[in-house]
């Protein structure tokens, strides 16, 4: 409900989480709610660092690399540290797995959840102010399970929650705890994520395809034929438009809102595809 351009019925992410908990799990102890709030706080800190990066000497390389053989940017490291500290302090996690850390982090006496995350996705876009994001997934371990990396080496459908935060022209948080994802937008004047859409659903028809076409000479035939079909549909329809940000979070967010297709297929250079199942794809 809007009055003079002002929402008179706002629902913040924190409230939404508490309401969901009461509705779906009235007898739960609220540990997942504490964890989701921690993730929300970490994303707000990363958003603030991203917005200030050019002013606070936070652009450029950190001078270190990660286990996937990538050079780390300063913001990759800042986002990673913020996530680890906030998650550790939440008291709800016993295993943390980050794109920027070689090994899993085990927290003795931590909680029943494990979080896998890509603290800053799309790092090639940091220095030119193009959208970047954070991706996270939450697994729960059995009480009897010892905290170990096997707590997260599970099928994606075993996630108890997952989402991403997009640091774009506005800051968007998208979160699913098993049902349709909900979309929140950060209101910078409140410092709160406010509910924008309770049920995000990808439109059935979309006119956009999204792929790094610079790799086309490395693609398998089927991919080349499919992309050709996007450009000149054999059924006489109009061509689709190409949009490719090169930050998965941004490309996926646009696809969820506008429809179409986003792809990073295996090719002769990236024989398994480039996106990482653990902290990006699942
Ligand atoms: P990251 O910055 O976390 O290492 O991941 C970047 C990923 C993903 O965001 C994006 O879809 C893809 O790499 C882009 O790769 P290309 O530059 O090869 O297109
Ligand atoms: Mn990376
Ligand atoms: Mn990534
Ligand atoms: Mn990353």
Automatic annotation (TrEMBL):
Gene3D superfamilies: 3.40.190.80, Fructose-1,6-Bisphosphatase, subunit A, domain 1
CDD domains: FBPase
Pathway: Carbohydrate biosynthesis; Calvin cycle
Enzyme's top EC category: hydrolase
Highest rank taxon of the organism: Eukaryota
EC annotation from Swiss-Prot or TrEMBL: 3.1.3.11
Domain Fructose-1-6-bisphosphatase class 1 C-terminal: 202-281
Keyword Magnesium among record annotations: yes
Keywords for the protein's UniProt record, in alphabetical order: Carbohydrate metabolism, Hydrolase, Magnesium, Metal-binding
A molecular function GO annotation: fructose 1,6-bisphosphate 1-phosphatase activity
This protein's GO CC annotations: cytosol
Annotated Fructose-1-6-bisphosphatase class I N-terminal domain residues: 12-197
InterPro entries (UniProt xref): FBPase_C_dom (IPR044015), FBPase_class-1 (IPR000146), FBPase_N (IPR033391), FBPtase (IPR028343)
Chemical reaction(s) catalysed: beta-D-fructose 1,6-bisphosphate + H2O = beta-D-fructose 6-phosphate + phosphate
Keyword Hydrolase: yes
Cofactor(s) this protein requires: Mg(2+)
GO biological process: fructose 1,6-bisphosphate metabolic process; fructose 6-phosphate metabolic process; fructose metabolic process; gluconeogenesis; sucrose biosynthetic process
Classification via HAMAP family: FBPase_class1
Family the UniProt entry places it in: Belongs to the FBPase class 1 family.
Assembly, per entry: Homotetramer.
Protein name as catalogued: fructose-bisphosphatase
């Amino acid at each position: 409900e809007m009055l003079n351009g002002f929402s008179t019925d706002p629902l913040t992410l924190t409230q939404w989480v508490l309401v969901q908990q009461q509705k779906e799990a009235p007898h739960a102890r609220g540990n997942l709610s504490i964890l989701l709030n921690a993730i929300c706080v970490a994303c707000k800190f990363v958003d603030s660092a991203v917005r200030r990066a050019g002013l606070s000497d936070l652009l450029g390389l950190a001078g270190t690399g990660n286990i996937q053989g990538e050079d780390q940017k300063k913001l990759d490291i800042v986002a990673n540290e913020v996530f680890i500290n906030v998650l550790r302090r939440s008291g709800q996690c016993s295993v943390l797995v980050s794109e920027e850390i070689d090994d899993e982090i085990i927290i003795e006496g931590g909680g029943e959840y494990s979080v896998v995350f890509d603290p800053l996705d799309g790092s090639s876009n940091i220095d030119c102010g193009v959208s970047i994001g954070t991706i996270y997934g939450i697994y729960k371990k059995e009480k009897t399970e010892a905290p170990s990396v096997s707590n997260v080496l599970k099928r994606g459908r075993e996630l108890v929650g997952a989402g991403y935060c997009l640091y774009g022209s506005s800051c968007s948080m998208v979160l699913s705890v098993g049902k349709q994802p909900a979309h929140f937008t950060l209101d910078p004047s409140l410092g709160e994520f406010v509910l924008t859409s309770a049920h995000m659903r990808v439109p059935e028809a979309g006119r956009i395809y999204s792929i790094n076409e610079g790799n086309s000479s490395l693609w398998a035939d089927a991919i080349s034929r499919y992309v050709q079909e996007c450009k000149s549909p054999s059924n006489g329809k109009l061509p689709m438009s190409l949009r490719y940000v090169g930050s998965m979070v941004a490309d996926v967010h646009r696809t969820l809102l506008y429809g179409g297709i986003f792809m990073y297929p295996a090719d002769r250079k990236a024989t398994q595809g480039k996106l990482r199942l653990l902290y990006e794809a699942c």
